[in-house]
Design brief:
Elements lengths: L6 E11 L3 E10 L5 E10 L3 E8 L4 E7 L2 H4 L7 E3 L2 E3 L5 H13 L7 E7 L8 E8 L20 E6 H9 L6 H13 L10
Parallel strand pairs: 4-9
Antiparallel strand pairs: 1-2, 2-3, 4-5, 4-7, 5-6, 5-10, 8-9
The structure holds guanosine-5'-diphosphate-alpha-D-mannose and magnesium ion (MG).
The site of guanosine-5'-diphosphate-alpha-D-mannose has 14 residues, from strand 4 and strand 7.
InterPro entries: NDP_pyrophosphatase, NUDIX_hydrolase-like_dom_sf, NUDIX_hydrolase_dom
Pfam families: NUDIX
GO biological process, one term: ribose phosphate metabolic process
Length: about 200
């Protein structure tokens, strides 16, 4: 379904333009019953991103990263956040960008990369879409320490974790990042034969 004819943008004001941008859009939207309504929405834009879960089926492990996230901290999450490696696209394609980002953050050089889904992270207010990937890895694929770019303020800890332990961390809220939850659930359903995954 293409709903372009049901939206008329009246104004798109840039409220802030810096590392990210913040816009206030005013538009007419035609409801399903045919009536038009004027709405205003504040929209946060920091570009699109890509995320990847490296997995080793033989050793039943995955690679996650742990880092400080001020946005979560400001909402009383006082621990470091556990996530899959991920990054902003910065004008590259998701496929190109994610391989570079995984090596920068984890030190692992992955090659057999599979796109599994893409998702809007918070579509009521945030423009960002995350392209999500998985890739197998072996211990010998580690070519550097990783850790991210100190010059950009990154201080990233690399964790190789037992898959079942990582998966269980969703249920007790030790993992709260949405791309990480979705990729671990994808892996439980499609890669590992996980206890508690649907159909097992
Ligand atoms: N958030 C933020 N980051 C900034 C800013 N200025 C510079 N940065 C730097 O921009 C870099 C972004 O690192 P990436 O690895 O590219 O992105 P990320 O922060 O890991 O993740 C982003 O993309 C993910 C999706 O792939 C998102 O899940 C995540 O929320 C975030 O937007 C970091 O080094 C960060 O320090 C700023 O004002 N705000
Ligand atoms: Mg990152």
């Amino acid at each position: 379904m293409d709903i372009t004819s049901r939206v008329r943008v009246l104004d798109n004001e840039t409220v802030y333009d810096g590392w990210s941008s913040f816009n206030r859009a005013t538009f007419d939207y035609q409801h399903r019953n045919g009536t038009w309504q004027t709405q205003t929405r504040d929209i946060f834009d920091c570009g699109h991103g890509a995320a990847l879960l490296p997995y080793d089926l033989e050793r039943r492990t995955v690679i996650l990263v742990r880092q400080f996230r001020y946005a979560a901290f400001s909402e009383a999450y006082t621990d470091l956040l556990l996530e899959t490696p991920a990054g902003l696209l910065d004008d590259a394609s998701p496929e190109e960008r994610i391989v570079i980002e995984v090596e920068e953050e984890t030190g692992y050089r992955v090659s057999d990369v599979t796109k599994v889904f893409e998702c809007f992270v918070s579509p009521g207010a945030v423009t960002q879409k995350i392209h999500c990937f998985v890739a197998p890895y072996r211990p010998g694929d580690r070519v550097s320490e990783g850790g991210g770019l100190t010059s950009e303020g990154e201080d990233i800890e690399v964790l190789e974790m037992d898959f079942d332990e990582a998966y269980a961390m969703i249920a007790d809220a030790r993992i709260q990042d949405c791309k990480t939850i979705m990729l671990l659930q994808y892996a439980a359903l499609n890669l590992f034969n996980a206890k508690g995954a649907a159909g097992t």
